[in-house]
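so my prof wants the structure for this chain in the tokens format not the other one, which i didnt know existed until like an hour ago. anyway here's the sequence
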Amino acid sequence: MDWNSRRITSILENALLEDRATRDATSYACIDPNQRAAATILAKEDCILAGIGCLARILDVYAALDGAVTSHYEVTTHPEIFDGIRLHKGQSVAVVRHNARVVLSCERVILNFMQRMSGVATQTRARLFPGSASSISTRSAAAADRITGLIYPMASSSRTITLLLREASRRLWSMLISIGAENSPSKWKCAR
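here's what i got, hopefully its the right format
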């Protein structure tokens, strides 16, 4: 997927604006502007990974929208972590190091995109290859949050795809955010 295309950039901008990420009052009131944070993205259940490329792109789009971001981010992933691989519950997907305000402002949008894309990939794999996906949970829950611009009108012949989108699981990801020094004991686990 070309995460730098104009269409994808527009979708990411709309998602960040809809979430009011650049106006996160809590982060601005409670977090020092120079505070750094490390966020570890963890799989909350067995799944197929999709959307790993959105991490860096969402941070880039946020910086362009906000205009006040002066620090640079670092997204670290293992070389064996890429779209399409099977993840196990609790497995680390990536670590994001950046300004604490930026991490807290973008975490919901990042998790929403990864949840939706990985949920669809997991459900598709489970339905197309039922024997090989036995270790992947096919339990599903309707997504409460929508992602602007990603729901396309579909013909009645693609009913299966429509069902997969509706059944994409929101229970796939969590983000563990550590505010302060790299070894700081204060960690927040976001309930998603």
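also thought this was worth mentioning. Strands lie at 36-43, 47-48, 74-76, 86-87, 92-99, 173-179, 187-189.
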